[in-house]
Design goal:
The chain is α+β, with helices and mostly antiparallel strands. The chain is built from four helices and five strands, in the order αβααββββα. The chain has a single domain, classed as YaeB-like fold (2-Layer Sandwich). A five-stranded mixed β-sheet has the order 1-5-4-3-2. The two termini are about 20 Å apart.
Length: about 110
């Protein structure tokens, strides 16, 4: 899956919020299509991580540096970058293999 720009919150607001504040998640139709194009095992792993996120489970950590308004969700060899949207909804901003996710996201946001 490739990333897109999201509405960015102020960095102070991101520091005040814990990474688990929502039971809802939003995936755009474009992201869903990209997810369907993945091989079966990575697709299952990403979908499992997103289902667990809705149940407030998962390995989530806040990001640092230029991505400090986001959190990352670990999903096997992939990482999902999350952003807070309106009314406590968590938005999937970007997902890719662990070894390239942050470099690609910074290029997209530049």
């Amino acid at each position: 899956m490739r990333g897109v720009k999201s509405d960015s919150a102020s960095s102070s607001a991101a520091k005040e919020r814990p990474c688990f504040t929502s039971r809802a998640r939003r995936i755009s139709p474009r992201r869903a299509l990209e997810l369907r194009r993945l091989p079966p095992e990575p697709r299952r792993c990403l979908l499992r991580a997103l289902r667990d996120l809705a149940r407030e489970r998962g390995d989530i950590k806040p990001l640092k540096g230029p991505l400090e308004t986001c959190c990352r969700l670990r999903a096997g060899a992939h990482r999902i970058v999350l952003s807070y949207a309106t009314r406590g909804t968590i938005q999937c901003v970007f997902a890719e293999r662990r070894n390239i996710v942050y470099e690609l996201l910074l290029q997209v946001l530049a």
